[in-house]
Amino acid sequence: MTSLFLRDLKLAFRAGGGTLTAVLFFMTVVAVIPFGVGPDLNLLSRIGPAILWTGALLASLLGLDRLFQAEREDGSLDLLMMQEAPLTLIVFIKCLAHWTASVLPLVVASPLLSLFMNMDETAIGALALTLLAGSPAITFIGAAGAAVAVSLPRGGLLVSILVLPLTIPVLIFGVSAVYAAVEDPAPFLPPFMALVALSLFFAVIGPFAASLALRASAE
To answer: Which bin fits 89, alpha (ψ -120 to 50), beta or left (φ > 0)?
Structure first.
């Protein structure tokens, strides 16, 4: 499992700069918003958490269609299915590698990009913490969508269509937690714990659903 994790990390960093593409897309979304809403700093600080969470969500969807596509094309996906380790565990490891290579850099970049939105220190810290807790859920949901579309030659758009509606609860609780931290630290815990619960829930459901879809596509 460690070898698979390291292999997927190397492939992610080599495959056309997917990590850099996600970060640049995230930066572009955040940088364009101030030009659209105007120079009102108070407005930017109010909408900042929602804009950053939405940008991170959309950037996280980039590259999900390639999660299993390369293995499908070169035949290594069949070899993975024949391993003694459960396919659900293999999918889980691949999701962790994808999150580490493509989504974790977005979490690291979020405090810097928060400055574009005139957010204070409390909001910046809450945003980074909620992204760290909630972004794994997006990856695990995306794994199921990528597995469904793995047999399609151009399934990138289909993956986004399948995954995006399912990620709305993650977005809602993530933004709510940041706003709660800014207004009063006490209400921060309920939405944040709900965010953690969603990540844990989809960490179980996502790989399992993806493994079923992969086996169905191989038949």
So the answer is: alpha
